[in-house]
Every structure is written in C-alpha cells, then in structure tokens.
Task: inverse folding
C-alpha cells in the first residue's frame, strides 16, 4: 500500500482547538508507522466558533491523495456545511464523503483504518462502527 | 416578467433588512440559540452585496446561485448552508433565462425550500425557518406581497412551538414562547422580495 493512495481525513468542528486536538489524539493513537493524512478544519476563518467552508475545502485539498477524503463533523452547522458543499460541484475533491460517526471515537477509528491502507468505504464503516462502542 | 435587476434588488433589499434587523435577530437567538444569528446573517449578506457588484452575474438564476454560494462560504453558522442551499437551488431551478415569470419564480422557490427541508431534515411545525418558508412558497404563486404576509404569519406562529431541530431543540419546553430566529430572518427575505417587486405596504414585522 503506497502512502500516495491513502484516504485522507478531515475533522470539522465548531472549535479550532477541538479539531486540532482530536487530530492530534487520533495521530497519537494511530501511531506505529506512517499515519494517513489528517487535517483539522475547526471554527471560522476569523478564529471564532462556527464553521468555515474555506477551511474545510483547504483541509480536504491538503489531505487528498486521490483515494478519497472522509469528513467527520461535530454539530449542526458543521454537518450542514459539509453536506451543502458536497451538493455543489467543485466544492470538495472527487471522492469526498461525509461520514456518519461520533467525532472523537470516529476520528480515531477512521485514521487507524486509513493508515492501515483501508479504502474509503472501509474507513467510513470503521468510523460509523464507533457508534457501537457503548460505555456503560 | 422578472429580470436580473429584480433579483439584484431582492438581494440588496435582503442585505439592508438584515442589517437593519440584525440586533433583533440576535436577540431572538440569544433566547433559544447561541446569539449569533444577526451577526452571521449580516456578515453573509454583506458579502453577497459585494460579490454581486464585483462579479455582475448576467441572469436571475446566476444571481441567486452566486449569492447562495457566498452565504455557504461566509456565514459560519447553520443559516449559511441553509440559506445558501435555498438560494442556490432556487437559482439552479430558474435555469439560464434572462427573465422569468412570477410562476417560474414560485416553482423554483418551491424547489429551493424543498432542498432546505432535505438538508436540515426538518418539517413544518419543528420551529425552524421552514415554518415561514413553506407558507411563503405556497403564497408566492399569487404574489410577492402574499408571500411576505404568509412568511410573517408563519414566523409569528413559531412562538408557541417547541423546537425539534437545531440548538434550540436541546431546550425542550424551554424553547416555547420564543419566536424562531431563522423563521424571523426568512420573513425578512420575503419582505425584501415584496419590496423588490414594488409591493410595499404593511408595517415591518
């Protein structure tokens, strides 16, 4: 599995620090080799709380290696913005998809799976499966 | 017939209304949301006005598609993708004609409203912008003035509702008794449409 074909992960949060920290956490837990590309797109372009289509598009371009890009989003406008960008041709790279997953657990599962060379469907399935990790 | 200039006037009138009412929208949002609806909408429509001037789209559809794309990029909250989808889908449904009839606008706007409902997963009575947009869309077949009146009534009608979508839904019964800010801004969009159509009259809700 060449590194060039890995699935990229984009973490879209209302908060810049949350997106960065989750990306860092996922990288740490996925370590043990070269991890797949992951980028944070948190907060607005001005650094406030909210969602920025520009930051999302930039992050997706950054992690795109031609094998697809899995986007995970936290709340309301993050989810809606990604959905509306996917509906607009040219907004996101070819093969970008919004993954239905819990933000933190899903990010870890997605990055571990992408780093092992999983394709987009496998990465998305692993992230969605994280909904099943019950805590009590 | 409604020409490109009509649609530019609609967007400009919306920007002016949002600017004028931004504090009221934020006030409504501070009761049941995160208190940024007015500032988000003001930022979004402010840049819509600027981009329409710099790019000069040539058809009614192109005006709305450009405005919608701009809102998705710049608003920062959920109203960005929702209003962006509304305008973009309406614009796409208008096609590439240089002029459209009132009936074509009503039909295209209906497609835009349906796209908003799909995107947000909300329906009538959920205490969202759709409670103003759905009746406005039906009334638009008659006139822009009728759409404005229907949107105002729909926005006021959200006061007794319990929110079932968005941040306000976390409040449960606590959302009852407050007007939905998204429905209030949707009423401004329809007021601006009536203004662009020269169907002024009635006070500002």
Result:
């Amino acid at each position: 599995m060449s590194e060039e074909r890995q699935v990229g992960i984009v973490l879209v949060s209302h908060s810049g620090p949350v997106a960065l920290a989750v990306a860092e956490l996922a990288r740490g837990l996925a370590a043990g080799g070269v991890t797949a590309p992951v980028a944070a797109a948190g907060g607005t372009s001005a650094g406030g709380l909210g969602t920025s289509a520009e930051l999302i598009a930039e992050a997706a371009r950054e992690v795109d290696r031609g094998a697809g890009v899995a986007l995970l989003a936290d709340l309301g406008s993050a989810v809606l913005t990604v959905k509306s960008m996917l509906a607009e041709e040219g907004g996101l790279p070819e093969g970008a998809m919004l993954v239905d997953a819990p933000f933190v657990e899903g990010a870890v599962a997605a990055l571990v799976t992408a780093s092992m060379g999983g394709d987009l469907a496998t990465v998305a399935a692993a992230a969605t499966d994280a909904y099943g990790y019950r805590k009590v | 017939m409604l020409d490109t200039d009509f649609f530019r006037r609609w967007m400009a009138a919306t920007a002016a209304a949002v600017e004028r009412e931004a504090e009221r929208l934020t006030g409504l949002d501070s009761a049941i949301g995160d208190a940024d609806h007015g500032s988000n909408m003001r930022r979004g429509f402010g840049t819509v006005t600027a981009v329409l001037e710099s790019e000069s789209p040539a058809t009614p559809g192109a005006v709305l598609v450009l405005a919608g794309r701009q809102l998705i990029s710049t608003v920062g909250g959920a109203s960005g993708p929702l209003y962006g989808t509304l305008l973009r889908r309406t614009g796409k449904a208008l096609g590439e004609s240089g002029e459209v009839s009132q009936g074509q606008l009503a039909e295209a706007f209906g497609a835009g409203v349906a796209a908003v409902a799909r995107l947000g997963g909300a329906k009538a009575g959920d205490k969202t912008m759709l409670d103003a947009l759905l009746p406005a869309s039906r009334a638009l077949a008659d006139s822009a003035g009728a759409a404005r009146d229907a949107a105002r009534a729909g926005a006021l009608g959200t006061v007794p509702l319990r929110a079932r979508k968005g941040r306000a839904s976390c409040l449960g019964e606590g959302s009852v008794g407050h007007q939905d800010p998204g429905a209030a801004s949707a009423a401004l969009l329809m007021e601006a449409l009536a203004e662009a159509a020269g169907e002024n009259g009635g006070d500002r809700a």
Chain B has a mean pLDDT of 94.
